[in-house]
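Re: folding output
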Amino acid sequence: MVTVAELFALDSLLEPTERQVRDTVADFAAKVLRPHVADWFEQGTFPVRELAPELGRMGLLGMHLHGYGCPGSSAVEYGLVCQELEAVDSGIRSLVSVQGSLAMTAIHAFGSEEQKQQWLPGMAAGTTIGSFGLTEPDFGSDPGGMRTRAVRSGSDWVLDGSKMWITNGSVSDVTVVWARAEDGIRGFLVPAGTPGFTASEMQRKLSLRASVTAQLSFDGVRLPADAMLPEARGLAAPLSCLSEARFGIIFGALGAARDCLTTAIEYARTREVFEKPLAAYQLTQAKLADMAVELGTAQLLALQLGRVKDRGEIRNEQVSAGKLNSSRVAISIARQCRTILGANGITLDYPVLRHANNLESVLTYEGTAEVHQLVLGQALTGEKAFR
């Protein structure tokens, strides 16, 4: 028997340090995360405060950033880490993505030196939790329509509005909030406990249950002038952070798919149907073969995009192509694997339907599949079809 990685000789394309990083995180995930994730999902809880410092000690928070306690790892190393974390659960990779690729990236790219010194070391260590407030109840795919406002009041700023679907929002120490000001979209650092700022955890989720999701409200929130990110002007600033997060999803979603396929193969080899293993039937083997090819080719694309990113040459439409492909391949594999497990596939004794439920969110967030299709369509034709 061969694995998908062996079938496509994937390890031969990785540097020794990349394999070491991947294997270290895979070992941590197997020992510390995997034994508990089904319970977290079932209970709709996630121990952010307990796990973040462990992730920080491993250098996984803001790992692609340089300085301020961040290790400055390569894009491929970051992608492989996302793959191993999401092989356990998408919610765990989301914590790392939101902390590092969204909140920390926004401060690192657009913050003042004082803001970077104040927040980034603690966030890299996992002792300070961050969140990223862009999406609103009525504006997801069209963030440019946001209604959250920032108005000058003397030397201060006053924020009014709301945000929704904010990962880590109700447990974060600081939230990067994007608001419409007189001169365009601006970013602000809003510490927890600021008067007028409330965050409530969202309940009754059927997806990403092992993750904290919040709704944020800003009612006359007064901030000092130095709360604004000085280098963030216009919608391009938050969108550049989203591109960083999407890159992690390219690898991460395939970790969930790999876990589903591995589970289905193991199950099929041991489950007997009509006096022989399920794996011995042609229909089962056809399913497994097709999924292996889909997963392997998607992993090759992810690695190629990682190499392009490490050269500093990646384009937004390339990230869109990767995110669109990985999320669609992953959810298709998860659903097909569920059929191989039969009724057992719907229980938390196996990870397959949990992954499938999570991937419904992955298909949607950081740009829906439809939005990425239109991004690619515009790149291919030169015509914008968003409106």
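--- second protein (sequence, then structure) ---
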Amino acid sequence: MLAVSLFVPLAACQTGAGQQLTAIDTAEGSTENISSLTAVIQRSPSDPAAYNVRGSAYGKAGRYDLALADFDRALQINPNYYQAWANRGLIKRLKGDRNGALADYNRAVQLNSSYDAAYIGRGNLYRDMGQTQAAFQDFERAIRLDTTDARAYYNRGLLYQQQGQHNYAIEDFSSAISLQNDAPAPYNGRGLSYLALGDDENAFADFNQAIKLDNEVAESWSNQALVYERRGDNVKARSSYQQATQLDPSYTPAKEGLRRVSS
């Protein structure tokens, strides 16, 4: 049972289905902020940066069609605006247009071969497409560029974890945490690799920290429950699994864990 209970959360973490670090940080997607950005565009209708920033805000708000329209306009004004190519690539990826996203990311790195965000975005796209080696190479490129973007280390850590190279994964998750210590995802990732190495105490500390940072992430509660389960404390495990299933009724590791400790 131990192998099964460990494998399921690791698989969830590897796919990135549960959590991601912030993808678009250029602007917040609030209505107030978008209104202020629209006012900037009205004052400077030929400024591609204004459209790029508002497009990022629309992306943050999940208004993908409006984001695409703004990135299109930015690129009409300045076809060499590599940040807008990469941002549009991200929105296309989120909309499921993988070929379009790949073309945009490729154009971004053609225009600026030192643009770390484009490599990270393209790496995530390659990972979505099952092209693990290409994804790994892009995350490596970003890291060699001395990126300060935690996503490069986090996503490379997921690939190391998927390959069972947990010591390398722990190093990468730790680097991600040093760059962005307010997100639960790298704590959950590192905790799962600690767990795979039999280091339950450090794993438990990471899962607890993930919950402290955001107590509405089902994966964090399910991971905490897994440690309780390994300790034989089914009462606490059941409570944490229940919390996870309340937050996300479709989260398979929590549902399966709850069945195990309730039988």
